[in-house]
Amino acid sequence: MMIRAVFAGAVLRGLMSVLLLVLVLGWTVPAQAAAPLEEKVQEFRLDNGLTLLVVERHSAPTFTAYMTIGVGSVDEQENNRGIAHLLEHMRFKGTQTIGTLDYVAEQSLLHQIDETVTQLTTCRQQVPFCPQREQELVERLQSLQQEHRCLLVKDEFSRIYARHGGVGFNAFTGKDLTTYQVSLPANRLELWVSLEADRMRNAVLREFYTEKEVIQEERRRSYESKPSGMLYEALLSTAFRVHPYRHPVIGWHSDIAALTKEQTADFLHRYYTPVNTTIALVGDVEAGQARALVERYFGDIAPGERVPAVTAVEPTQNGERRAQVLFDAESQFLVAWHKPTLPDVDDYAFDLLGLLLTQGPTSRLYRTLVLEQKLATSIEAYGAPGARYSNLFVLQITPRVPHTVAEVEQALYRELELVKTEALEPADLERARKRLRADRLRHLQTDRGMAGMLTHFQVVAGDWRYLAQYDSQIARLTAADLQQAASRWLTAQNRTVIELVREVH
Which of 404, 410, 409 has its CA nearest to residue 335? Predict the structure, then answer.
């Protein structure tokens, strides 16, 4: 899938054996980690299940750290949708020592805030409803929250990192995982390890209720006021009927409102733990020192529970699905087809198909629909919404005025039928392979890109070595393989179409 292509494969060279290091340091490392690979990735596994990946690059006195937890929105249930994204926010709020002036005093206030929220919820559900009691509780809650704010040290994690030269401190939650990232001077490795271990061990869910309001506003701003966000949500909820990929990462409004502090804390302590965590350190670090520091700070944290696999399987789609989104914007539409995920051979085939169809002026669909027939102004291919489970191949197209979506659709389907029947030019296929390789290598050259790729594939594919196998898998694909993949999946009964229609006032 194209969204994954930038994370795909590496031309990896000459890994030193880590077997001797493992024996000396007493770590448990899979046997295959000692085999010669094409990149100097050293892997270590703590007894509590945490995975550490180290790539030494001493060209600059900095390193990038990625901590990826294999928990995303796909792991949520009907009663806690949006909880992974909420926890991404909450884990920035600090710990028992970071983010507070007096944790002992703060604990009492947090307990009173929780009790008042519980009473307010009960009040609003009572029959008959008592508005006077509600107002009293609202005022009490506001007073407690104001008192609590006097004990907070806002954004202390980011302030500490910035004070020590950190850049790019951020996090993101997806369908499949949650990642925290930062780049720091090489002599600040212990600072990073100690802070992140403290965050895993002692996170405090402070400002819980006000942060839910922040996320509600984020949803309105980023999803409900942007045509692209509305289209994408409509696509997933239409294409998937059973699998949790159908739900938005941020959750629906009612989901966010319903999340409780108790269930959020339980989810945090259950899954944001070593057994589900991969750390990648890339840059001016020494593997032995990195291993020792991670062992010292993370080693005695309880493993936690491994995130259970999703058992829901999306049934085969047996007919085209269509939906419209009304919005005051120029017309555009999405067409998506179900397909398998990695490591299925058809997943690799769609990486190449996406390039051949839409990347650059010589690509099939861009050349015909945009340049020659002038039916569209843009066309893009990507994979969505995740990669741990079977997903979608998506085309996003903007018609050129005055052409309609119906006109562009018919031209699109004609071209796709030709892709299934006309032989691909060997030169085009080779150019696509080279483009994939070049894009990937460009990404791998950065510490951030390498760290992101390693943790991503360790979580999504179950083994970062997927990177080392990618080029050989792509090289084995023939034009016939691509045509067979297109014939198998790019069918009318397997597609979902979402159209943005300008709302008439």
Answer: 409
